[in-house]
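Bit of a strange request maybe. I'm writing a small parser for structure token strings and I need a real example to test against, not something I typed by hand. Could someone generate the tokens for this chain?
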Amino acid sequence: MTRRALMIVALLVAICISAPLARAQTLVIGEPADAAERAFVQQHPDQWSQLTPEQRETVLKNYRQWQRMSPEERGAAQKNFNEFRRLPPEERQHALEALRRWRNLPEPQRQQLRQAYARFRSLPPQRREQIVQRYQHFEQLPPEQHQRVLNNYRRWQQMTPEQRQETRRQLNHVAPKPNRPKWRRRLWNW
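Reply from user aminoacidic:
Good idea to test on real output. This should exercise your parser:
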């Protein structure tokens, strides 16, 4: 296995596992902790010798995570990795950048996003598709409209439930302008 392949295996596990599993480390950084890890390292002595201690530690952490995965989780990880390899280089770079941003998020924010994603996945397929289409439309808005929508959303988040209810009531009583596109008539329904 080449150094590149060894690093790809490490990347595979890093991409597929979003939440690192906590484990107390009293070991020397980058050194195998048990016989299985030593055997893994001995299978790739040339590549291992070229890695820095930090890279070795990353490979070992990923190996440990891989070992803890069920066969189903490993299959899903392998599938994700194969899909990642088939991406065009630009999309692969975008995925890696998104992974870096994810890793830089504080754990409470990651947990909040995981919960939001779980809620999204539990929606009926038609509703999920509707949300995706609205998001795509939002992304294509001119910068000033994009910012206006974000500002409205922030104001909405700061409202009390009573204020939101009153705003909904007021918006439902406003007659839509005939020349205004349908999506702009329901801006608050995002």
